[in-house]
Request: fold
Amino acid sequence: MLDTIICPQWEHRYYSFNSNWAAGEMVGSMRNGQGDEFFAAFNCHGTFIKGFDHESAAASLGLPSERFYRALPHHFAAFSREPAFSPEYVTFCMWRLSDEPAWSSAKIELPEAEDSDGSAHLLEILDCLPKTYWRWATEYYETEVSQQAVIAVYEHRTLTEEIVASLNPTCSVAALRDDIAEIGYPS
Reply:
């Protein structure tokens, strides 16, 4: 929701979310315009995350994408073939079934590196801390982003004109109606 307010043009957004991707499925994504991306798909069986970090050690190996999808539960198989997810570009893939206590992934030998597959770097924004997003957005969008507005959205408060204007003075709640519905932001 925050990226939608700050950057209303979908094609220029860094982060996006569709709560109605398909029947019973939701998808969040990140695309930085430099080839790095991740997709997080949710269904009644759990969560599938696939990403690509073009500067990671894993990318330099040029491994076939199928190796990253080995052992993927059949509940997520369609996600590994989804053209919108660029399935051929992958440096990490992980999943978690709803009834499992931990995340799983294919066992792939990667070079010794601090973040050999790029997942720590690309997924660090998902730490649930408003301050993490606020710091990132202030730097990325090169503008002062209201920390209080970021907190309000993280807390799923009703979007008011004041909250929206503090993030983007050229945007309004009315202009966001379709996006709010697609994202599934509470109203």
Summary: The first strand starts at residue 15 and ends at 22. The radius of gyration is 17 Å. The chain is about 30% helix and 20% strand.
